[in-house]
Amino acid sequence: MTDLDEFRATVRDWCAAHVPKDWRANQTGVGDDEFVSFQKAWFAELHTAGYAVPHWPAEWGGGMSVPQQIVLYQELARHDAPRLVLAFVGIHHAASTLLAAGSEEQRRHLPAILDGEIWVQGFSEPEAGSDLAALRTTARADGDNFVVNGQKLWASGALHADWCLLLARTDPEAPKRHGISYFLMDMTTPGIDVRPIRNAVGDSHFCEIFLNDVTVPAANLIGPVNKGWQVAQATLGAERGMTMLELSERLGNAGFNWLLEAAPVEDPVVADRLAQFEIELSGLRGLCRDLVERTEAGQAGAADASIVKLYYSELLQRMTGFGAEIGGLNAHTVLAKPASSGWESGAWMLDFIGSWEWTIPGGASEIQRTIIGERGLGLPREPSAV
């Protein structure tokens, strides 16, 4: 038995003993307090085992090799473990930003994240979604502080967040990618108003954040003034690699298994579709593993992450749409899903509606195709509107 086989056996035994068997039932229809309590307890359980932040450097509590991380996410998906919904931005986006560009003092947030500190990403705005560089929230220098005014939109989990990764314009006269700065913002600061947005499936995960003369200390600036766009690439890059590998494993395990349970496999047309999905899932997993390994080696291409994001999001949409189709009326009348699940819960209509979260935010499919064409294939750039 190889070391990796032994590690897999260890993770498998841990999952069998620690993944809550009834979490789906217990997390369906729960209120915010129960959801937050469960999420924090599950994160603490993973942290105790050393499985919460395997992608972090060893000195900060991680240090797993890429093959070990792949095995870990495979086993968590195979045992239908709950997702780390609340901790996601902290352990991925905030951590990658702090490790890439944060000061030693700012990196004190890393241990705090392991202790349960919750983060939200304050990037998108009403007029700056896919075109993030068009953001209009301003940060005006005022002595040892910046005074922030503006609005952020689609801020996942903002209602429960302790801190925010904030992009704001510090030089309104500069070209739009050159006048943006990156801040860490304490969500308890006066002048912050968080308003949840009820979405199409009845959840209020997304929020608006209104900022009215919010004071942010200059010590909370990440990187140089007006260089926030470059720093943000580290944050956006956190959606690549292991996060996509985890999501692909979940789709290939729980998602595909739910589909098998719902499908009349004796129907040859249905059986053919299922076989096609299984092939596509194998391709997705291969792409994700390849991206992780080449990113770790510093060899990832400029469009590789866009390929994976596009492939995953559209496969997710096709699979959940097929589940809603074959599930019939029953699938259309399920109006609740587990709060700590992903986009492959088996509540097909809700999963299908939720799948649009992946084909629109984070760069719509059209934008991903443009990136693939221009940066990956070397095709001519699209004409600019200005």
Q: How would you sum up this structure, described in words?
A:
This protein is an alpha+beta fold and 386 residues long. It folds into three domains: 1-91, Butyryl-Coa Dehydrogenase, subunit A, domain 1; 119-227, Butyryl-CoA Dehydrogenase, subunit A, domain 2 (Beta Barrel), CATH 2.40.110; 231-377, Butyryl-CoA Dehydrogenase, subunit A, domain 3 (Up-down Bundle). The protein has helices at residues 3-18, 23-26, 32-49, 66-78, 88-101, 109-114, 228-237, 242-262, 268-296, 304-333, 348-359, 365-376, and strands spanning 119-122, 138-142, 145-152, 163-169, 180-186, 192-196, 207-217, 221-222. Strands 1-4-5-8 form a four-stranded mixed sheet. The protein has a four-stranded antiparallel sheet with strand order 2-3-7-6, with no helix packed on it. β2 (138-142) and β3 (145-152) form a beta hairpin. α1 packs parallel to α4, α9 (268-296) runs antiparallel to α10 (304-333) and α10 runs antiparallel to α11 (348-359). It is globular, with a radius of gyration of 21 Å. The chain starts with a helix and ends in a 10-residue tail after the last helix. The model has no long low-confidence stretch (mean pLDDT 92).
What keywords describe this structure?
Butyryl-CoA Dehydrogenase, subunit A, domain 3, globular, 386 residues, alpha+beta, Butyryl-CoA Dehydrogenase, subunit A, domain 2, four-stranded mixed β-sheet, oxidoreductase, Butyryl-Coa Dehydrogenase, subunit A, domain 1
